[in-house]
Amino acid sequence: MDINATLIGQGLTFFVFILVTMKFVWPNIQKAMAEREQKIADGLAAAEKGKQELEQAEERSQELVNDGKQKASDIIAQAQKRGDEMIEEAKSEARTEADRVKASAQAEIDQEIATAREKLKTEVAALAIAGAEQILMREVDKSAHNEVLDKVCAKL
C-alpha cells in the first residue's frame, strides 16, 4: 500500500475537520451538554426537595388528623359527661318532685283520715244517742244523758 497524495489530502482534510469541529462545534455541544446536565441536576434537586416537602406535609397532615381525632374524642367525652350530669340532674329533680308529690298525697290522706274519723265519731255519737234514747225513753232528764254521751264521744 502506497501512501499517495489522496491519502495525505484525506488526512489533512480530516485533521482540518477535527480542528474546525473542536474550535466551533465542540464548545457548543459541551455548552449544551453542561446546560442539560445542570437542568437535570436542578430537576433532581427540585424533585428531592419536593419529596421532602411532601413527607413533611404528610407528617403535618397526620399530626393535624391526630389532633382532630383527639379533639373530637375530647368533645365526645365532654358531651357524654354533660349528658350524664343532665341525667343525674333530671333524676334528682324527679326524686325531689316525687318526694314532694308523695308528701302532698300523704298530707291529703292524713287529712281525709282525720275527716273520716270525725264523721265516724259523729255518726257513732248519733247512733249512741239514738240507741240511748230508745232505751231511756222514759227518763225525763235528756241534758244529763247528753253530757254523758258527749263524754263518751270525746273518748272515742
Automatic annotation (TrEMBL):
GO cellular component: endomembrane system; plasma membrane; proton-transporting ATP synthase complex
Cellular localisation: Cell membrane; Endomembrane system
TM region(s), chain numbering: 6-26
Membrane topology, as annotated: Single-pass membrane protein
GO MF annotation list: proton-transporting ATP synthase activity, rotational mechanism; proton-transporting ATPase activity, rotational mechanism
Keywords: ATP synthesis, Cell membrane, CF(0), Hydrogen ion transport, Ion transport, Membrane, Transmembrane, Transmembrane helix, Transport
Entry superkingdom: Bacteria
Function as written in the Swiss-Prot or TrEMBL entry: F(1)F(0) ATP synthase produces ATP from ADP in the presence of a proton or sodium gradient. F-type ATPases consist of two structural domains, F(1) containing the extramembraneous catalytic core and F(0) containing the membrane proton channel, linked together by a central stalk and a peripheral stalk. During catalysis, ATP synthesis in the catalytic domain of F(1) is coupled via a rotary mechanism of the central stalk subunits to proton translocation.
UniProt protein name: ATP synthase subunit b
Gene source species: Methylohalomonas lacus
Phylogenetic placement of the source organism: Bacteria, Pseudomonadati, Pseudomonadota, Gammaproteobacteria, Methylohalomonadales
